[in-house]
Amino acid sequence: xxxxxxxxxxxxxxxxxxxxxxxxLNALTTHTIRELNELLAAYxxxxxxxxxxxxxxxxxxxxxGADISEFADFDAEQGRMLSRNGHQLLFNYIENYSKPIIAxxxxxxxxxxxxxxxxxxxxxxxxxxxxxxxxVTLGVIxxxxxxxxxxxxxxxxKALELILTADMIKAQEAFDLxxxxxxxxxxxxxxxxxxxxxxxxxxxxxAISHAIVAINANYKDGVDGFAVEIExxxxxxxxxxxxxxxxxxxxxxxxxFKGKLAQA
Length: 264
What we know:
By secondary structure, the chain is an alpha/beta fold. It folds into two domains: about 5-200, 2-enoyl-CoA Hydratase, Chain A, domain 1 (Alpha-Beta Complex), CATH 3.90.226.10; about 205-250. The protein is built from ten helices and ten strands. Strands 1-2-3-5-7-10 form a six-stranded mixed sheet, sandwiched between helices. Strands 4-6-8-9 form a four-stranded mixed sheet. The radius of gyration is 19 Å and the shape is globular.
């Protein structure tokens, strides 16, 4: 696979994706969103991949917003379609992805870039990173899930403050608000991210996929998260990872998980 705006590599069972538009501070375009969707879809059921990392090219930006020139002349219906497609193709797709996706935030994460980070399961930032939603300065609001995910993670009051003022926050403040899992010096960013990947790789991929579904259920309107947990817990008993994990525990050895559902 070859892409215009993203680079990728697979190493040690980790798929690393780099948004590669450093001259534009890696700003998201609709084309980039489609490319990210295509690449993630290609690896969604790949049993040789245990985790995904998303970062930005260069040292200045993770993703510094969307490409404003693409939608400056849109009408209301075109705006709705832009938002709807983004949700479906990338941001909701990432949130519900069956493998853990980690955002390695190596600089500015603004607008759509902040929304991209918030949609990931885990977020690690370099200490020079800056995050925020500048949309109201353009006469719009965050349209790729930012109003919802920021409130879920930081609370309604803080989400309103950050979105209505368009204030940009530093990495440490984002960590204090619960938006980040860790903040490290920029030189240590990828090492920290891959350290987390190493921990994930030793665990059951099947159990991890069920855990993602169960945790996400708590944030979906009209869904009983406890009922989803019960269902996902039961599904774990149907796969070989459960048998291998329990057998390894009883035999006092490390499990060798294959990450495949048991055959009927």
